[in-house]
């Protein structure tokens, strides 16, 4: 059976506790490894944008759980395509934080200073996800942000305006 990449975005729930994000990632990374899934999640000020790669049935089951997760509001599938090879191989769950995205970087990747998933085409969103996964500086800042959140258990680590 061929593998797929499912890309979606959702609005971050108002009561989401950003300081708990590290727990979500620890759990997701462990489970994704066990289920042979990989992918990446971008967290903007108001949205999650995620690409998940793996077996069609396993990815579909995971997405159905995400739809029922109260931390996500109004999830929207942007694309679900069969893939020849994984773009996020080796990343059970990559993370990109809003604090790692400068207006200049965002403009170079999506054509404007703001990352608004509701206005992005599928091809642009896929290109964004892959480009960010290859950007070592962005990935390093994002992982450091996640580590600080774990150390301090604080929402203050994230540049978030709800």
What's the layout of helices and strands?
Elements: E1 3-12, H1 21-34, E2 38-43, E3 47-55, H2 56-67, E4 72-83, E5 94-97, H3 103-110, H4 122-133, H5 136-152
Parallel strand pairs: 2-5
Antiparallel strand pairs: 1-3, 1-4, 2-3
* Main sheet record: 5 strands, mixed
The gross shape turns out to be globular
Number of separate strands:
5
Structural class: alpha+beta
Gap between N and C termini: 41 Å
Model regions low in confidence, pLDDT < 50 over at least 5 residues: 154-162
Write down the secondary-structure element order: EHEEHEEHHH
Strand content: 25-35%
Question: What radius of gyration results from the CA coordinates?
Answer: 15 Å
Share of residues in helices:
25-40%
Tally of DSSP helical segments: 5
Description of the molecule:
It contains 5 helices and 5 strands; from the N terminus they run E-H-E-E-H-E-E-H-H-H. It is an alpha+beta fold and 162 residues long. The chain has a 5-stranded mixed sheet with strand order 4-1-3-2-5, sandwiched between helices. Strand 2 and strand 3 form a beta hairpin.
List keywords for this structure.
162 residues, alpha+beta, five-stranded mixed beta sheet, 5 strands, globular, disordered C terminus
Short recap of the structure:
The chain has 162 residues and is of the alpha+beta class. The protein is built from five helices and five strands; from the N terminus they run βαββαββααα.
């Amino acid at each position: 059976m061929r593998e797929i990449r499912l890309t979606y975005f959702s609005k971050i729930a108002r009561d989401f506790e950003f300081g708990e994000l590290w727990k979500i990632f620890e759990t997701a990374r462990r489970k994704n490894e066990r289920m042979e899934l990989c992918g990446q999640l971008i967290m903007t000020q108001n949205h999650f944008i995620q690409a998940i790669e793996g077996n069609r049935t396993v990815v579909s089951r995971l997405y159905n759980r995400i739809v029922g997760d109260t931390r996500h509001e109004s999830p929207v599938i942007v694309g679900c395509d069969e893939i020849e090879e994984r773009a996020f191989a080796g990343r059970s769950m990559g993370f990109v934080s809003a604090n790692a995205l400068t207006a200049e970087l965002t403009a170079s990747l999506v054509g404007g200073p703001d990352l608004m998933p509701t206005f992005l085409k599928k091809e642009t969103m896929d290109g964004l996800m892959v480009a960010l996964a290859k950007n070592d500086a962005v990935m390093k800042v994002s992982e450091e942000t996640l580590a600080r959140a774990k150390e301090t258990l604080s929402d203050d680590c994230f540049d978030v305006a709800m």
